Amino acid sequence: MTATQCPPSRAAELGSLYHFLELALAHPGEDGFDYFRRPETEHELARLLSGHLPRHAGPPLADFFGGLRKATFEEVEAAYISLFSANFPQVPCPPYGSLFTAEDDGKRLEEMLAIKAFYAENGVDVSESFDDLPDHLCVELEFLQLLCFREHDAAAAGDAELAAALRGRQAVFLDRFVLPFMERLAALAAKFDADNPYSHLLDATRLLLTDHRSHLGECLP
Question: What is the reported pTM?
Answer without folding.
Answer: 0.91
